[in-house]
């Protein structure tokens, strides 16, 4: 193989699917071949059957819906506050100097460590779930957005000034559109992290959602259900990722020209 | 009265971490008349770009002042358009939107924006590329768009900081002719920084030569080829005389800069 030589589109798709096939085959061999006890790891067929019962008998679709709602709700809430604050911090250095040290500190506070405290404050209802996701996403978003906005090419800024922009329109007409595709990319990335926070929040004190189903299944040693739940999360992640990428390409055709 | 007066402008960059200060620009004086096309010629690092940036308001003078129509310049503004050496088109805007950037800022109507941009797009030869994004254009086309973008604002002075410096030789010569033809139509006051002697003579009414750092103006000469100018004047005897003289002037400075070990 030649290093750095691009691979054609059909070959790339085939290779990508290939790994899934190898993965499932290895799993099937290990379980159906009797190398691993059923108690610890269900085989692919049991997993699919368990999944089917979950959806048809136990109303798992509702759990999926609840979890998606929590992720989207908490994430949108975080984005609504984080993006404007990040833009302000990136554009105005005193604002950055004021918030940056605290946000950098808060960024390292693990969202899952707040769960006991949040249960104390907000109970085990929806507010607590949203808050976990909010804490997990907000500080990351703020910092990353601020960096992207602050890194705007200085010669573009200077060109804009010689074209007559004011300090305010520089922010709205140059800094913001210039950073928009990268902000969208940051949102895509952090949304992925939000998925891990929601499951953790649902594992602890919850009566619905994918995470809740997973803890219930653990008590019943239903590894097929657990794996089905995990795969569902992965699939949702994959789909949203594709959707996000497609939307970004559509919204910012100029950024894809790089 | 001069359109633009540069009065004893100097610039000292303070040294960082105990380094000595850098004198980029010695007190410099230059009077620029209406519709003058002045090229500023100098060795690398002589402070010619610094001078231009001070006129643009992107940098400030340590002493002295710049007057535009008698008013001191404070900060950048739409009355001094600038074309940079680096490609500074806004990548998220199409060619037409880039050209209309300043007009939109002023709140010009869509009709006016369309009119002005149509005219300029035709003049810089970008018909058919109105809806292209900058990344889809060659370097020469990007700089032509940047020129149109600066002209759309109808600035009092057009500042050009080695605008063709990143282009290959052939494209550069075509761009010079194009800029001259546009200048002959718009009759602008232009300050054009370059280190290319041919370019300096070909474009200018007046060529100004700066010394090595700290830069100051040491020589000035008028170039009196009639307009419209064609590329053929580059091989004329008068052109060669200008070139011989300016080459001597520049060479002396470049040697001095090399001896001083001046950074680029």
Description of the molecule:
Chain A is mostly helical and 258 residues long. Chain A has one domain: MetI-like (MetI-like fold), CATH 1.10.3720.10. Chain A has helices at residues 9-32, 44-56, 60-91, 93-107, 115-122, 126-150, 154-162, 167-203, 210-219, 223-251. Chain B is α/β, with parallel strands linked by helices and 264 residues long. Chain B folds into two domains: 4-79 and 156-260, P-loop containing nucleotide triphosphate hydrolases (Rossmann fold); 88-154, no CATH class. Helices cover 37% and strands 23% of the residues of chain B. Chain B has eight helices and ten strands. In chain B, strand 9 and strand 10 (217-222) form a beta hairpin. In chain B, helix 4 packs across helix 5 and helix 7 (197-203) crosses helix 8 (237-260). The longest helix of chain B is centred in the last third of the chain and has 24 residues, at 237-260. Chain B starts with a strand and ends with a helix. The mean pLDDT of chain B is 91. The A-B interface holds A 153, 155-156, 158-165, 169, 173-174, 177-178, 180, 252-255, 257-258 and B 56-58, 75-78, 80-82, 84, 86, 88, 90-92, 101-102, 105-106, 133-136, 146, 149-150, 153, 159.
């Amino acid at each position: 193989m030649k290093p750095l030589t691009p691979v054609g589109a059909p070959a790339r798709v085939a290779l990508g699917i290939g790994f899934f096939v190898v993965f499932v085959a290895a799993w099937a061999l290990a379980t159906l071949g009797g190398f691993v006890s059923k108690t610890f790891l269900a085989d692919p067929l049991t997993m699919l059957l368990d999944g089917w019962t979950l959806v048809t008998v136990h109303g798992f679709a509702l759990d999926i819906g609840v979890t998606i709602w929590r992720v989207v709700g908490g994430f949108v809430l975080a984005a609504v506050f984080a993006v404007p604050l990040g833009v302000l911090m990136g554009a105005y250095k005193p604002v950055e100097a004021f918030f940056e040290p605290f946000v950098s500190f808060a960024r390292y506070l693990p969202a899952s460590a707040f769960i006991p405290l949040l249960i104390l404050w907000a109970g085990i209802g929806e507010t607590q779930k949203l808050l976990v996701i909010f804490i997990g996403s907000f500080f990351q978003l703020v910092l990353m957005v601020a960096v992207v906005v602050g890194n705007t090419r200085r010669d573009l800024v200077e060109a804009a000034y010689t074209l007559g922009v004011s300090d305010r329109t520089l922010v709205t007409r140059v800094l913001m559109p210039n950073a928009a595709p990268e902000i969208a990319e940051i949102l895509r990335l952090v949304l992925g992290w939000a998925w891990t926070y929601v499951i953790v929040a649902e594992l602890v004190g919850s009566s619905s959602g994918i995470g809740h189903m997973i803890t219930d299944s653990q008590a019943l040693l239903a590894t097929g259900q657990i794996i089905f739940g995990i795969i569902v999360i992965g699939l949702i992640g994959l789909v949203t990722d594709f959707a996000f990428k497609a939307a970004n390409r559509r919204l910012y055709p100029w950024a894809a020209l790089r | 009265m001069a359109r633009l007066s540069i009065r004893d402008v100097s610039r000292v960059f303070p040294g960082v971490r105990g380094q000595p200060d850098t004198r980029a620009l010695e007190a410099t004086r230059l009077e620029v008349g209406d519709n003058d096309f002045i090229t500023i010629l100098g060795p690398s690092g002589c402070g010619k770009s610094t001078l231009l940036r001070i006129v643009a308001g992107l940098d400030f003078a340590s002493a002295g002042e710049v007057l535009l129509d008698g008013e001191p310049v404070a900060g950048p503004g739409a009355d001094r358009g600038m074309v940079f050496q680096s490609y500074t088109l806004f990548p998220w805007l199409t060619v037409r939107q880039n050209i209309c950037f300043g007009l939109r800022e002023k709140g010009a109507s869509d009709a006016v924006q369309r009119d002005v941009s149509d005219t300029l797009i035709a003049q810089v030869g970008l018909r058919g590329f109105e809806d292209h994004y900058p990344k889809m254009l060659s370097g020469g086309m990007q700089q032509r768009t940047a020129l149109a973008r600066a002209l759309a604002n109808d600035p009092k002075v057009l500042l050009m900081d080695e605008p063709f410096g990143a282009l290959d030789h052939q494209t550069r010569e075509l761009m010079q002719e194009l800029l001259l033809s546009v200048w002959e139509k718009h009759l602008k006051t232009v300050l054009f920084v370059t280190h290319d002697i041919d370019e300096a003579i070909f474009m200018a009414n007046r060529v100004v030569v700066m010394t090595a750092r700290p830069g100051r103006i040491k020589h000035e000469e008028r170039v009196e080829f009639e307009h419209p100018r064609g590329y053929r004047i580059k091989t004329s005897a008068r052109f060669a005389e200008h070139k011989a003289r300016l080459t001597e002037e520049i060479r002396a400075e470049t040697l001095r800069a090399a001896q001083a070990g001046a950074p680029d």
